Amino acid sequence: MERELRNPPGVHMPQAHYSHVARVGNTLYLAGQLGMDVSGKVVGVGDAKAQARQCYENLATILAHYGGGLRDLVKTTTFITHWGYRPLVAAARDEVFPAPPYPANTLVVVQGLAEPHFLVEIEGIAVLD
């Protein structure tokens, strides 16, 4: 089965050594996305909802590169740095997925992410038609 590791255009190039996407056949494994725009600027400093929105925007950009969209996500994992961010991140998720079907999701509260100003990180698995 064909495999591809890639950093598609439209999202910030990772500074660490990893790829935003690992594609195997029609399945995309999307690395955790942070609240960063394409230039690497943090979006929504101190605002978990704004960061979650940017995470979803980054996921959407990556999926669009492969001809897909957020509805192709079958599984997401959401990391937050404080349990109090849960309703804010859920509100952003409800904007993206206002009605069923919803992708499977795991929510994890962690002590920290890559840098202290990051409050939310969302990774995903998508299956393209």
Concise account of the structure shown:
This protein is an alpha+beta fold. Helix content is about 20%, strand content about 30%.
Distance N to C terminus: 16 Å
Roughly what percent helix? Answer: 10-25%
Rounded mean pLDDT score: 96
Q: What is the helix tally?
A: 2
**What is the beta-strand fraction?**
25-35%
Largest sheet: 6 strands, mixed
The tally of beta strands, per DSSP, is: 6
String of helices and strands: EEEHEHEE
Describe the structure.
The structure is a single chain. The chain has helices at residues 48-65, 86-96, and strands at residues 3-6, 21-24, 27-33, 73-80, 104-109, 120-127. By secondary structure, it is α+β, with helices and mostly antiparallel strands. It has a single domain (3-127), classed as 60s Ribosomal Protein L30, Chain: A (2-Layer Sandwich), CATH 3.30.1330.40. The protein has a 6-stranded mixed β-sheet. Strand 4 (73-80), helix 2 and strand 5 form a beta-alpha-beta unit. The longest helix is centred in the middle third of the chain and has 18 residues, at 48-65. The two termini are 16 Å apart.
Helix and strand topology:
Blueprint: E1 3-6, E2 21-24, E3 27-33, H1 48-65, E4 73-80, H2 86-96, E5 104-109, E6 120-127
Parallel strand pairs: 4-5
Antiparallel strand pairs: 1-2, 2-3, 3-6, 4-6
